[in-house]
Design brief:
CATH class: Mainly Beta
Strand content: over 45%
Number of domains: 1
Mean pLDDT: 81
Helix content: 10-25%
Number of strands: 11
Structural class: mainly beta
Shape: elongated
Low-confidence stretches: 1-31, 37-42
Strand order of the largest sheet: 1-4-5-7-8-9-10-11
CATH architecture: Beta Barrel
Amino acid sequence: MLTFASKSRRAAALAACSLALITAACTADRPSGITAPPPTEVDSIAARYVLTSVNDQPLPAVVYAGLYLDGDTVLYHDVRVVATEGFVHLRTDGTFDQRVKMEAWVNGHLSGRPVYVDNGNWRSIPYSDLVRFESTYSAAAGVFHGLAHNRKVWLSQEITGGEAGAADNDFTYVKQP
């Protein structure tokens, strides 16, 4: 015949068993026979990420639009700079490379295809999604921060050279498989 212990006896037995396990695990002078599971593999943010959008707009996306005063002719020109593709590569050794290809349009005509390039060192800030970047390529870029979460990296940067009216843009990069 199968009998069940009362609820209070089961609780007492569970408490005694738990206490015995804790005591055995905490005893340093003898092996406890209890081993901790191996640490889980953390999804490293070190990887290559491809630029997918700027200011939540898919590529090609405007990174600068405004008037430019030509000092020689004293004429204003309508200037538009558009990001067309790019990447940021965070290496396991703590270095990074970044490249953003753009098109520059003046008065509706393609004027050139500048490329923003940067490199330097990166490190993730413990217990947060923050990533600290320190440019060794561009003194103007200096130190800046980004976010890394859910296979994406977000950087807020001004990459057009600081023309009057230029502002930081939010660049979204997605981790490559």
